Every structure is written in C-alpha cells, then in structure tokens.
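Recall the central idea of this unit: under ordinary conditions, the amino acid sequence of a chain determines the structure it adopts. In this exercise we apply that idea directly, starting from the sequence alone.
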Amino acid sequence: MTNLFKVLFVVFGGLCILGLFGLPWLTDWVDALRIAVATMFVVGAFAHFGKYRAHLIQMVPPNVPRPVFVIALIGILELVGGLALLWPPTRPWASLGLTLLLMCVLPAHFRAAELKLMYRGKPFPSLLISTLLHVVFVFAVLAVG
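Accordingly, the structure predicted from this sequence is:
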C-alpha cells in the first residue's frame, strides 16, 4: 500500500512539474491528480494477478468466501475504475465505485497489519498508517470524481 502512495505522489508531482511548462492538459492540478490516481489504481490492479497475488490472498479475512476470486475481482475493479476516471462520462461513477471499493478492502488491510503479514518482503503498514493512507486515497478519488 505504501508503494501505491509512492506511485500517487511521484506521478502527481511529476505531472504538476510538467504542468508548470504549460502543457495544456496538465495546467490544472485536478487533472494531474486524476491521472495520478488512475495510474495508482491501474498499477495496483496488476498486483492482483502477478507474483505477489498470494500475499494479497492471505490478507482476505477468513469470513470472506472464495478469496482467490475476490482478489481477482478487486483487481478487475481497480483496473476498470482507474481507467474510468479518465473518461468524463464515467468519472463520477468511477469515483463512487472506487471509494466504496477502498472502504471494502480496509478490513483486509487492518487484518494484514494486525497479523503482521508480509508483502514483498516487508511487513504491511501499521493500523495507523493503513488508515491514514486510505483517507488520502479516498480524498484523492473524491477530489477527481
């Protein structure tokens, strides 16, 4: 999750810097943030299908049936939602859907923090960090919707 924050921060910062040079589609910080949020979700979606998939599956709370299917579904929703943020007619719906998705996955992040699960050789962020990152992600998604 902290890697996704880095993606969001680096892409947003880079696009804002490019916007200073007068690129017409980057002169507004909301457009830069929208592209950064979309990038974050698309990058995050691929983790649900790559070599770290097993790490995500272990996060799913035990009362959630079919964790393998759930992780795949979340990956698809992140991919579609991230791309839908870029198209004006679907933007509000994508913002709403991604906000709800973030709320739904929060218990899995709490579980990962409580159990001190590992992801890519590092422990998942603490409850406080997970909560703060989710708040940042939610505000970013709502700001660009």
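The CA atoms of residues 54 and 78 lie 18 Å apart.
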